[in-house]
Amino acid sequence: MKAAIMQPYFFPYIGYFQLLNAVDTFVVYDDVNFIKKGWINRNNILVNEKPYLFTVALKSASQNKLINEIELDDHSNWRTALLKTIHLAYGKAPFFGQVFPLIRDIIEQKGTNLSEWIVYSLQKISSYLSIETKIIISSEIEKDNSLKGQDKIIEICKKLDATHYINALGGLALYDKSTFSANQMTLQFIQSHPIVYTQFKNAFVPHLSVIDVMMFNAPEKVRQLLDQYELI
Length: 232
Hints:
By secondary structure, this protein is an alpha/beta fold.
């Protein structure tokens, strides 16, 4: 069984979904510390031919709190403002009509727990893209939470009876293949191939949120893009 473990990112770039699609079980790593100015509550979309960073408003967010302890700040109008920005940016995109209702459903989803809200978004997007990977939450897995780093990842994989662990390329400096092998697991890293598609008539702007990918590509085409990677 192939497993991956990643922090919950809101409307992440397509590489996140490549990893999710490459495994049998995807663990949303929500019981680790929140990272400010990371990708947990923000990402880029295309506005006026340039990347535009949108941010989900949070209440008393701190790196001293676990991700699943962070709450959305609904005292501001960020939901309405974000939907308006997306509508203006992509109103003329070829798949706006079928993607915007999905985006609106996610953004307007009730509840204020950041982790639960992002898990809901990952499930809805996965369903739209016909990704059948099982999504589970790390805080619901009984494990030794005193463990850190690679040891905790291996512990989670053992609890899942995983035989393969696949990680984003950024984990090359964090995880050791021989250590995983000693624990009867194969460690591999996912390396995305360059992804290019038509965005209106502009020069292509890469590394944007999956929102951008879905607005300009049919689900079938997105699925083809999900397979543009290799394992190393």
